[in-house]
Design goal:
Layout: H1 12-16, E1 19-20, E2 38-40, E3 50-54, H2 56-60, H3 69-79, E4 91-99, E5 102-108, E6 112-119, E7 125-131, H4 148-163, E8 173-176
């Protein structure tokens, strides 16, 4: 696929923590996973992904510019997980914690994937995550996809918080599919 910027990946997180290798048959199977922080998982492609919103400022942090319709269409396939971003290493984050006043044991990213860390031209390190990329070992009962309504809300709120001077994550785009 054309129209992808040359991103400088340095996936330090995966080099420094315990990572479960990719299991073709188990990668989308919700299950207990032991002794790891991340599980390698490939995104599940979408049919006909289309970008409905994007932040040129947030994507610019990665040195990713969308100047033409072809670049936007290509970005939609990469930012939906439908095409592999060269240099990325998709993995779901495993964690534990308390929910509703009780320890809930294993939790994790049931619909988000760490894609890796990009070092931009200024030498800044940014982590790229995709949300709604399909099931992971931590999906529990969901399908691993994201609802458009909550995705738009997260996109708008993250940008609003940033421009209000509140430290936050940045949302680069919202992609829909058939």
């Amino acid at each position: 696929m054309q129209h992808i910027p040359k991103l400088r990946w340095d996936n330090r997180t995966l080099r420094c923590l315990n990572v479960e290798p990719l299991h073709d048959k188990l990668q989308y199977q919700p299950r207990q996973v032991s002794d790891v922080i991340y599980s390698k998982v490939n995104p599940i492609p979408l049919q006909n992904p289309r970008m409905v919103a994007y932040s040129s400022e947030a994507l610019g942090l990665l040195d990713w510019e969308l100047n033409t319709e072809e670049e936007k269409a290509a970005a939609a396939t990469y930012l939906s997980g439908s095409s592999h971003l060269p240099g990325s290493e998709p993995a779901a984050h495993c964690y534990a914690g308390h929910q509703f006043g009780a320890f809930s044991g294993q939790l994790g990213d049931g619909r988000a994937l760490y894609m890796g860390e990009i070092i931009n031209k200024k030498g800044e390190r940014w982590e790229l995550q995709l949300k709604g990329t399909g099931m992971t070992p931590y999906s529990r009962q969901g399908d691993g996809r994201a609802v458009l309504r909550s995705s738009i809300r997260e996109f708008l709120c993250s940008e609003a918080m940033f421009y209000l001077g509140i430290p936050t994550t940045r949302a680069g785009s919202v992609v829909v599919s058939d």
